[in-house]
């Protein structure tokens, strides 16, 4: 499943390239609770087709009605400079538009965004680049600039700048049953998933539509993938011959999450093995996570996959996880089994 922003921009590009009227809607401010965060975008075509969202649906319905019915009250123009729209100012309006109690959000509406600029932006995202898109509020002119790091939406009296990046990627080493659950969840969360396993007996039964399955050695796969700050690498094979070199290769990249499944004993043994035989240090292995996942008492493959996906999303979203969610720490505190007696997490 493609990154939602890219999906919205791709649809908007196609509509404008075909000469169709379209509206780009961006959440620029929120007060109190709001259904969608600042920076969220939605594309609305002249006939009412919608991709993306800015609320739970009621605001979308209002925008569709105002945009597709030119003669209606409060109708939106087809061509005009950018303008703001605010919803949920009063309790009555918040209720009408399905906003949480006290919720208010402000939107920027861009009418008929330039097709050439949209094409250039989507090409940059397809090439894996991070891009600042700035739109002048007075006339709607758009400029694009490559970015070095993700950034929050910026709005001042002159322009709005939103940062768009390529889709997040997940590389899973091992094509077992748990990999199928994790790959499925990752795709629903907007990750492009690659599963690597040189073992034919595991690849033969792997079946997750949309996930790319490759037979190359894991360390070669990591090198070819060139992980960036929007990539995570997770080893699920329990086989040092497949996992170790790939994990070390990943640690040389900016990947935001690198980890391996296994018991506390197995993960301790992996670190010791890397230090003794692969010239690593505790410092060089500081970013290596294991056992992966959050402690949720999981024991089955789908539950373990949930715990891993939850930890990946927490790290991606910059959430500082409490020590009480760390698998090794909790099991040590609770005295749950001898270290290494099981390979479950969570």
UniProtKB/TrEMBL annotation:
Domain XdhC- CoxI: 15-66
Domain XdhC Rossmann: 170-312
Entries under Pfam families matching the protein: XdhC_C, XdhC_CoxI
InterPro entries: MoCofactor_Util/Proc, XdhC_CoxI, XdhC_Rossmann_dom
Protein name (record): Cytochrome oxidase I
Native source organism of the sequence: Melaminivora suipulveris
């Amino acid at each position: 499943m493609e990154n939602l922003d890219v999906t919205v921009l791709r649809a908007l590009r196609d509509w404008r390239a075909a000469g169709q009227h379209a509206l780009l809607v961006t959440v620029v401010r929120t007060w109190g609770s709001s259904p969608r965060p600042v920076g969220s975008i939605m594309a609305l075509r002249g006939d009412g087709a919608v991709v993306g969202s800015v609320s739970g649906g009621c605001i979308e319905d209002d925008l569709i009605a105002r945009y597709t019915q030119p003669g209606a009250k409060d109708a939106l123009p087809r061509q005009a400079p950018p303008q703001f729209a605010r919803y949920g100012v009063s309790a009555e309006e918040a209720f009408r538009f399905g906003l949480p109690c006290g919720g208010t959000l402000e939107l920027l509406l861009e009418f008929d965004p330039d097709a050439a600029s949209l094409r250039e932006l989507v090409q940059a995202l397809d090439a894996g680049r991070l891009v600042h898109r700035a739109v002048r509020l007075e006339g709607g002119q758009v400029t694009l600039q490559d970015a070095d790091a993700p950034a929050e939406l910026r709005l001042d009296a002159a322009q709005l700048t939103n940062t768009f990046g390529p889709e997040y990627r997940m590389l899973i080493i091992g094509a077992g049953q748990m990999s199928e659950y994790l790959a499925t969840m990752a795709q629903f969360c907007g990750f492009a998933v690659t599963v690597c396993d040189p073992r034919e007996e595991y690849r033969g039964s792997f079946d997750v539509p949309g996930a790319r399955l490759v037979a190359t050695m894991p360390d070669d796969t990591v090198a070819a993938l060139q992980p960036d700050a929007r990539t995570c690498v997770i080893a699920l094979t329990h086989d040092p011959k497949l996992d170790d070199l790939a994990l070390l290769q990943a640690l040389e990249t900016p990947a935001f999450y690198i980890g391996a499944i296994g018991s506390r004993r197995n993960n301790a043994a992996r670190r010791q093995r890397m230090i003794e035989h692969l010239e690593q240090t505790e410092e060089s292995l500081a970013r290596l996570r294991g056992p992966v996942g959050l402690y949720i008492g999981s024991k089955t493959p789908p539950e373990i996959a949930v715990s891993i996906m939850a930890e990946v999303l927490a790290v991606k979203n910059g959430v500082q996880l409490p020590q009480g969610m760390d698998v090794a720490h909790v099991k040590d505190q609770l005295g749950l089994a001898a270290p290494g007696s099981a390979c479950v997490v969570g």
